[in-house]
Amino acid sequence: MNTSKKIVCLGGGIGTVNLITGLKTLTDSLTVVASMADEGGSSGRLRRMYNILPPGDLVSCMSALIPNTDQNSKKLLMYRFPGDRYGKDEDLGGHKLGNLMMVAMRDLTGNFNDAVEMFREMFHITGTILPATEESVSISAETIEGKIIHGEETIDLGRYQGKRILEKVFLHPENPHVSEKVLTSLSEANTIIAGPGDLYTTLLPVMITPLITEAFKKSSAQKVFIVNVANKPFETKDYSVSHYIHAVIKHLGEFPFDTVVVNNNYEIEIPKKYKYTYVHVDTAEIEKLGCTAKIVEADLVDDHFPLYHNSEKLARTIEQIV
């Protein structure tokens, strides 16, 4: 692959971390546009306590892009203090050190974007990490019963009554500010990749941001959608590939991707305690949706933790596509 190709990744969660861990060896121009809808755990607590954009996904992505020769810095940034990550806002326990450093850097620089740049320079991070919006956003979701659920953490963890099957997700405010850096990265990209990641609480909150939606659709870049290896119990229970495609169509009015990447190795047993299930390809249902995207199937599963992609396998597959 041409290492000068500009690749932009939409998402920000653990799926994006696994993706860019492999991609960083393939390109010198890698950008991540991370959701700012995170309200749970350490990020949510810091967001409420210090009126800061949620730092967790940005920190995780930047840690993934630290040079492989500096594993100690990565371990330091990802160190989580003992305690409940969902504990009281003012408690130290459960916080990730890198998140706390982002708060300190924001205070030192007076600006969140400058704090991100300070973070990148201090740890010699290659690639560009951008918040999807210049302000914190929140999300709500409608279930198939018509119930409206508020908050990323509540939606993600299924902390509500009724059928935990989601119909649609909404952004608040509806049209948040987006930086010119994000819009420029999309317009100049050679390849834009969405996923893997939590469909309703990470990926769609980025993709339905109006200015990002517009720039994404206008971009002449090759567009790749990576389907999760396994379904989360409360977000995408029993989803097949067609359900992911249908969800995108429902939110964007179309499926604007050229290629869909799917894992096809289901041989490794997923531990029952996680309550996850593999995502399967259902070709007939995909065709019924009128989807013309190329479906690329490969063994992408992490042999040691089959909820997620293996970074090296995924990178090799993406290299063949782009």
Overview of this protein structure:
- By secondary structure, this protein is α/β, with parallel strands linked by helices.
- It has 13 helices and twelve strands.
- The chain has helices spanning 14-23, 41-50, 56-64, 71-77, 97-109, 112-122, 152-156, 180-188, 199-207, 210-218, 241-252, 283-288, 311-321; strands at residues 6-11, 29-34, 128-131, 138-143, 148-150, 166-172, 191-194, 222-226, 230-231, 259-263, 277-278, 294-298.
- The model has no long low-confidence stretch (mean pLDDT 95).
- Domain count: 2
The main β sheet shows up as:
7 strands, parallel
End-to-end Cα distance, whole Å, is 7 Å
The CATH class of the largest domain, by name, is Alpha Beta
Uncertain regions spanning at least 5 consecutive residues: none
The CATH homologous superfamily of the largest domain is called CofD-like domains
Total count of strands: 12
What's the helical proportion of residues? 25-40%
Strand content: 15-25%
**What Rg, in angstroms, do the CA atoms define?**
19 Å
Instruction: Give, in spatial order, the strands making up the sheet with the most strands.
Output: 3-2-1-7-8-10-12
- Secondary structural class: alpha/beta
Write the H/E string, N to C.
EHEHHHHHEEEHEHEHHEEHEEHEH
Mean pLDDT: 95
Number of helices: 13
CATH topology of the largest domain: Rossmann fold
CA-based shape: globular
